[in-house]
Amino acid sequence: MQQPTAVETQWWKTFYDDVAMVVLADQDPDVIRDQVDTITRLTGLSQGQSAMDQCCGLGQHTRELTSRGVDVIGIDQSPLYIDHARRLARERHGGAEFVVADALTYQHAPPVDVVYNWHSSFGYSCDDAWNQQMLHAARQSLRPGGTMLLEFPNMLHLLANFQTSISSTHPGGVSLTRTSRICASTGTLRQVWEYRMDDRSVRTHESSLRIYLPDQLIQMFRDSGFVDVNAFSPCGGTLAADSPRCVIVGSNPSVQ
Questions:
Q1: Pairing of strands 97-100, 71-76
Q2: pTM above 0.70, yes or no
């Protein structure tokens, strides 16, 4: 009998646990600030406006935007991560709101000025229509004339510089080895994440990410009803093939 794929088993429901949280929390605050600079520059988001962080994770970008006077709601499917984000927001006296929700279906009311999805939280299925639900939900959460921003690996760079194994170390004695392969039959990047702890215990997760080139992401935006769709580098400049990541930005039409 054929074994179910990582997507068919909905790998993301168990992937984002306490050990993965250690790795996700290991982010340079200066990098977070630079990324938020890109979000504000490409979307025009400014103090007094509203935004939704679609798949907010631990809420680093949400809290940074809140500190800049933006009214932000962060959503994520993980109760563990939302609890963590809420706790940090309370400790820092921030006004960000965090909600446990499925980004495929969640539509925020009232509509916001900007929806952003940062750091590969898209394309978890090999079914394009399934993935596109997230873009539809984002558009329904936007006011007329609002902006959607999606940050994703630049697959042109990833495929040209493919690495089968990457290792890293993180706080709390956690080391991570990430083994990658391309599944040609489904057009996906399959990865095995092996976490080793100080007590020598090992935890392993699998993930799958649909391989979308920048032009395919642009078309998905257009198919979801967005206009004026463009691709940028992570710093907001012109996207080049050697850029490791890409940012897709589109507008919700002013006239519905």
A1: parallel
A2: yes
